Amino acid sequence: MTRTAELLADDPLWLILLKVLVIFVFLVVMTLLTIWAERRVIGRMQHRPGPNRAGPFGLLQSLADGLKLAFKEDIRPVLADKWVYFLAPVISAAPALVSFSVIPIGPEVTIFGERTALQLVDLPVGLLVVLACASIGVYGIVLAGWASGSPYPLLGSLRSAAQVISYEIAMGLSFVAVIMYSGTLSTSGIVEAQTGGWFFLLLPFSFAVYVVSMVGETNRAPFDLPEAESELVGGFHTEYSSLKFALFFLAEYINMVTVSALATTLFLGGWHAPWPLSLIGDGVFNTGWWPVLWFLGKTVAFLFFFIWLRGTLPRLRYDQFMNLGWKVLVPLSLAWIIAVTVIRALRNEEAVTSQQFLIGGGVVIAILLAATFLIPDRKPAKDADEIPLAGSGYPVPPLDLQVPETPPRRTPVRSGAGEVAGPEGEEAPHGNV
């Protein structure tokens, strides 16, 4: 049992409840601030002011929107399954809140005379808890689409299930190299293992795979295909309103905060101070309440990255998105794990020096990047019956449908003798007008 686990085991009940309350308030406040920051930052990127009326700099706009959602009419479709329709938002939001419990925010501190660690719980399998919560959260999305009784939410939920499963595999593979170098699945143990150096420098490819996977895992742009309004109206939450819709919205942004905090924990040293502050005064900035500031700063930087992506990149096509997950990230992650295993084994046996280790790692990364960008995609063979559309190169259905010719229009023309002429000047039978 680690030192952190021993401290947390001795926490009194009031301290545990206080930590739970602080985590809940922190996640809700971070959601409100992230929504505000997203609207302001993207507004600046698009040369418009963004929200600036409710409160100073528009800070109260997210709170006003949340209150408006609470007082909106709650509508339930006639064909919806009542209980599943009600439970789906809860199933989606609850795991998002639980997964943050294993994230270490800071080192040992004293709270009201009680020595404790700034973490709710330290489990030997903390990383698996995060993956399990992400897996359970997708059930809420799938059930929401199925229980709505509408085809568009169902399609959106199926997309989300395929998306989350695909990118969870890549995310899990990005953890393997971190676990190998830290020797533990505990989040606090991984932070302690980065005392001498952050893992994003030692394992850059794992870091890159995790960054791509966390964007796909949270259904954020440019991977927001389950909510693609161009073909799915609003995705899995099309039929939701009021507080139920607010829970889905809350779950999305809490997941953003959680994956950002996890990225900080795994690759950016967690609550450790950045260089050169970590060298000042024998690590004085790594003690007390200073580490909370470093942790929040790194997490906010990842949240800004989410916002930056949304304001910069267009949405991918679904086939491009799935190809990236299954044909690029997963195979290259497996190759990276094998390479890291071989290099680490050689280094442990002192068969290679540190310089040779860095050179070998650079060569492996270069090969992986070359395999990513230089290998052309295999295109499916064209069907013989398909005719390419002129100037586009995309196949179209066979053009064998014959449109019948329009018959000549019968234009009644009254003759001077009281008769009506038929088509092409023929004389129509008497009495037809």
Automatic annotation (TrEMBL):
Record's keyword annotation contains Cell membrane: yes
The keyword Membrane appears for this protein: yes
GO molecular function, one term: oxidoreductase activity, acting on NAD(P)H, quinone or similar compound as acceptor
Topology in the lipid bilayer: Multi-pass membrane protein
GO biological process per UniProt: aerobic respiration
InterPro entries: NADH_UbQ_OxRdtase_su1/FPO, NADH_UbQ_OxRdtase_su1_CS
Its EC number(s): 7.1.1.-
Region of interest (Disordered), ranges: 386-433
PROSITE patterns linked: COMPLEX1_ND1_1, COMPLEX1_ND1_2
Low complexity bias spans: 413-423
HAMAP family: NDH1_NuoH (MF_01350)
Similarity comment: Belongs to the complex I subunit 1 family.
Function: NDH-1 shuttles electrons from NADH, via FMN and iron-sulfur (Fe-S) centers, to quinones in the respiratory chain. The immediate electron acceptor for the enzyme in this species is believed to be ubiquinone. Couples the redox reaction to proton translocation (for every two electrons transferred, four hydrogen ions are translocated across the cytoplasmic membrane), and thus conserves the redox energy in a proton gradient. This subunit may bind ubiquinone.
Name of the protein in question: NADH-quinone oxidoreductase subunit H
